[in-house]
Design a protein that fits this description.
With about 475 residues, this protein is of the alpha/beta class. It contains 16 helices and 20 strands. The longest helix is centred in the last third of the chain and has 18 residues.
């Protein structure tokens, strides 16, 4: 016999009728769902504008079509002066409210490991900042571990804490059902700061929640043996002038975006934005941007908008220029506001570097790269720096540079999690190819490969790369 919706809310979920009735949670059938369902109305200024359905048996969800929902129970942010608590579900929100907390909201459809559900938090940022503090009470799973850091990044400078649930409890409703309202209160009172000043010490068992270590891959077999990019880390790429280091980085970035369904940000200082657009267009359509009809251009642009952001520099009203502080602000906006998981800075040499009086350029670069590595971890993104090598001795034949060949500091070799080089070479049979070499892999077990190289052919029309074929293979040999 199917349980009635009101019985399910009270007997299975432990929610009292006075609360659920007051929040307008009722049984309501949905044409696309089978079995009893409850509906959670989304209110704005006291009036419903959207809804979410959930079946009593199983986990079938439906939401109002074509409506962008904000935070569940967002009206509670309009009054009161206590902390705001953020959960990952309407039932968790109601569970904490039942424990006596009035200013509780929920992200509409939980969090995910991609971190691409930030729109509702950005929309409520001003209201959240008016609180004395924000407490993140998400789920104790791999996705939920990324929510506290995402909230702290959006509310940078505001007090943000996180809740740790008791063993055996995944979320607030688990705690309510198994341990009662008093245990929810205890968890809230013991919520810990995300970013305590200077640092903190924990044991192994009480480490703070952090996003799951994620390695981004292009899905291109030839590249995946030598290139992968860890979210929360920094990589450095280099190459001799004209070798195509910017081109191959854009090629990799495009395939990362498609294969991993992520957003990519470009800070390309030596590449005109229209050239970046044309490159992405060729990779998507195998045609140049200018060869498309106007309607096709609009269609391609909308498709590329889903995965790519391009930074445009302006030169007015920037007293200190495009320096490290400016770069931090751009990376913060791309990573936190736009949700980019891969950010290309190309080239590093175009940043206006301003060492402190008396500071050597070597020490400054060491500090700057350390900061960039921290930003990647803090903002939960990958930052790929492209840097020019110094003028190298050729010994009659140019060689592929490494991190130690980049101008001004050995830190370019020591700091990144992954380092790579792009170099043009000629085979013994006269065929030309591009050699992509990985000269640094900090965690080969995580990345799945060590140092190595691959030979690639460049298709100029499509701005793409494939496995190198010798003249004999393509019919040019004898």
């Amino acid at each position: 016999m199917t349980m009635d919706a009101s019985q399910w809310l009270e007997q299975v979920r432990g929610l009292v009728p006075a609360l659920t009735d007051g929040m307008g949670v009722v049984r309501k059938d949905h044409p696309g769902m089978q079995g009893a369902a409850v509906v959670f109305p989304y209110l704005r200024n006291g009036k419903p504008y959207a809804a979410k359905w959930r079946t009593v048996e199983g986990k079938d969800f439906r939401s109002t079509k074509d409506v962008s929902r904000g935070l569940y129970n967002e009206d509670c942010l309009k009054s009161g002066d206590g902390p705001v608590i953020i959960t990952e579900g309407e039932i968790d929100c109601l569970s904490i409210m039942q424990a006596g907390f009035g200013r509780v909201v929920s992200v509409p459809d939980g969090w995910d490991e991609k971190g691409d559900k930030r729109a509702c938090l950005l929309g409520a940022e001003e209201a959240l900042r008016r609180s004395s503090a924000v407490i993140v009470a998400g789920d104790a799973d791999s996705a939920g571990r990324g929510l506290p850091r995402a909230v702290a990044n959006i509310l940078k400078g505001h007090e943000v804490r996180y809740v740790t649930w008791p063993d055996g409890c995944k979320d607030a409703n688990d705690v309510l059902v198994k341990l009662g309202e008093s245990e929810i209160c205890r968890c809230m009172s013991e919520a810990k700061l995300i970013d305590p000043t200077g640092g903190y010490i924990t044991g192994i068992s009480d480490m703070p929640p952090l996003p799951t270590r994620r390695v981004l891959r292009t899905g291109v077999p030839e590249l995946d043996y030598v290139l992968a990019f860890e979210v929360g880390a920094m990589s450095v790429g280099t190459g001799t002038p004209g070798s195509g280091k910017s081109t191959i980085t854009t090629f990799a970035a495009y395939h990362l975006a498609v294969n991993e369904d992520i957003k990519v940000g470009f800070l390309s200082f030596e590449t005109h934005p229209y050239r970046t657009r044309d490159h992405l267009c060729r990779l998507r359509t195998a045609r140049a941007w200018d060869d498309l009809h106007e309607a096709e251009q609009k269609q391609v642009a909308r498709a590329l908008d889903a995965n790519f952001r391009v930074v445009h520099r302006t030169f007015d009203d920037i007293p200190e220029g495009h320096n490290l502080g400016w770069l931090r602000d751009m990376i913060y906006t791309l990573a936190v506001r736009d949700g980019c998981k891969f950010i290309v800075v190309d080239p590093w040499n175009e940043i206006e570097h301003l060492p402190a009086p008396g500071e050597s350029l070597t020490n400054y670069i060491n500090f700057a790269l350390q900061q960039i590595r921290v930003w990647a971890e803090q903002y939960d993104t990958h930052i790929c720096l492209i840097a020019h090598p110094r003028k190298m001795m050729t010994d009659g034949k140019p060689r592929s540079p490494t991190g130690y060949d980049i101008a001004d500091s050995a830190a370019f070799s020591n700091k990144p999690s992954l380092g790579f080089s792009v170099h043009q070479e000629t085979s013994d049979d006269g065929s030309e190819f591009v050699r992509l070499t990985t000269w640094k892999v900090r965690d080969s077990q995580l990345y799945g490969f060590g140092k190595g190289s691959v030979k690639l052919d460049f298709n100029e029309a499509g701005m793409s790369y494939g496995k190198h074929e010798t003249l004999a293979q393509i019919g040019g040999g004898k």
